[in-house]
């Protein structure tokens, strides 16, 4: 089934786009028309079993900007300044691209939580400073109008948000009946086949034998901020997963109970112990019960609710699907 990148396959101006060059297709590209050097991108998503609904969540882990031929990090020439997370937040909030605070919070919510305990703002800061500012089409001298401070920042993060919506990893896997499970393991071939659509051949990554992330190697036709992304024609990195017996880990904690007065007295019974919980089959990874809901500002709580509702719908859909299969 071809569930792809509709968003990115439908260029806004077909005529204009068909004339645009694909990054990494030649060495003499105009750095304002197409990212060059540094035209190979790796969009990374990471799985968090204890975030979101019952089936965990695939959030944005980051973006790599690579040199086309060496396929090493392209970070020798920067095209824009480094910024602090306060500056990045302010540029994004001011930009019409996010449509205000709700849009900005939604975009932040698409990111996986930092493994070293940074807030998402710090993760954005790191991503801009190590990747975004090395994209040549964000060079101030490429902008038609005189670019103010922060040019490119909002464009960079909104593009990552579009990529996240394009690569529907959880759905691609569940369409192939691959869901988080504590008694089923998967082969690398099964996972890779489920995620390969059209010419996209993502690379699956593991922590030991536990599925952890997916890498989507990409080129872009046109500027990073307005071009259309395509599967990279060449990318050398191999999966580090074993060929068989890959664990797609289920939740290790109970979902946060829905708040209601009746629930109050039961809450202490449902609450998991305040200690780290380890998966017996993989002692190297520890999972903590997510405390974020408590710290969330009101805006984010609203967001989470919406997200949960979406999840519920999806669960119903899945339940329907299973029922139908039982009947067969
Ligand atoms: C460039 O990237 C390499 C590999 O990720 C890293 O080790 C190095 O510190 C980076 N250099 C700069 C100037 O960011
Ligand atoms: C799992 O990971 C740990 C630490 O990263 C490592 O020491 C161990 O050898 C790995 N086990 C296997 C089976 O690869």
From TrEMBL:
InterPro entries: RNase_T2-like, RNase_T2-like_sf. It comes from the Eukaryota. The keyword Cytoplasm does not apply. Gene3D superfamilies: Ribonuclease T2-like. Pfam families: Ribonuclease_T2. Residues 1-19 form the signal peptide. Residues 250-328 are annotated as: Disordered. GO terms for molecular function: ribonuclease T2 activity; RNA binding. The keyword Signal applies. Residues 280-328 have a biased composition (Basic and acidic residues). Keywords: Signal. Belongs to the RNase T2 family. This is Uncharacterized protein. It comes from Kwoniella bestiolae CBS 10118.
């Amino acid at each position: 089934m071809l569930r792809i990148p509709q968003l990115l396959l439908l260029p806004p101006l077909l005529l204009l786009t068909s004339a645009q060059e694909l990054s990494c297709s030649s060495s003499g590209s105009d750095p304002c028309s197409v990212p060059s050097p540094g035209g190979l991108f790796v969009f990374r998503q990471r799985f968090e079993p204890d975030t979101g609904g019952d089936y965990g969540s695939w959030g944005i882990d980051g973006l790599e900007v690579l040199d086309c031929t060496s396929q090493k990090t392209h970070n020798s020439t920067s095209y824009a300044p480094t910024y602090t997370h306060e500056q990045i937040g302010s540029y994004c909030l001011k930009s019409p691209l996010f449509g205000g605070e709700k849009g900005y919070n939604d975009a932040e919510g698409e990111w996986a939580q930092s493994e070293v305990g940074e807030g998402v703002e710090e993760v954005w800061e790191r991503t801009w400073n190590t990747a975004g500012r090395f994209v040549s089409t964000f060079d101030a001298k490429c902008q038609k109008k005189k670019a103010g401070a922060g040019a490119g920042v909002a464009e960079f993060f909104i593009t990552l948000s579009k990529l996240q919506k394009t690569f529907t990893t959880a759905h691609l896997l569940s369409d192939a009946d691959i869901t988080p499970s504590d008694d089923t393991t998967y082969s690398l071939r099964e996972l890779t086949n489920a995620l390969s659509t059209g010419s996209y051949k993502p690379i699956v990554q593991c922590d030991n034998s536990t599925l952890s992330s997916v890498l989507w190697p990409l080129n872009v036709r046109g500027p990073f901020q307005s071009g259309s992304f395509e599967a990279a024609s060449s990318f050398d990195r191999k999966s580090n997963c074993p060929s068989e017996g890959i664990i797609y880990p289920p939740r290790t904690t109970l979902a946060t109970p829905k708040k209601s007065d009746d629930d109050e007295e039961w809450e202490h019974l449902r609450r998991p112990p305040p200690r780290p919980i380890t998966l017996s089959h993989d002692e190297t990874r520890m999972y903590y019960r997510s405390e974020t809901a408590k710290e969330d500002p009101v805006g984010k709580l609203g967001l989470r609710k919406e997200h949960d509702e979406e999840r519920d719908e999806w669960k119903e859909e899945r339940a329907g699907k299973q029922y139908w299969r039982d009947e067969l």
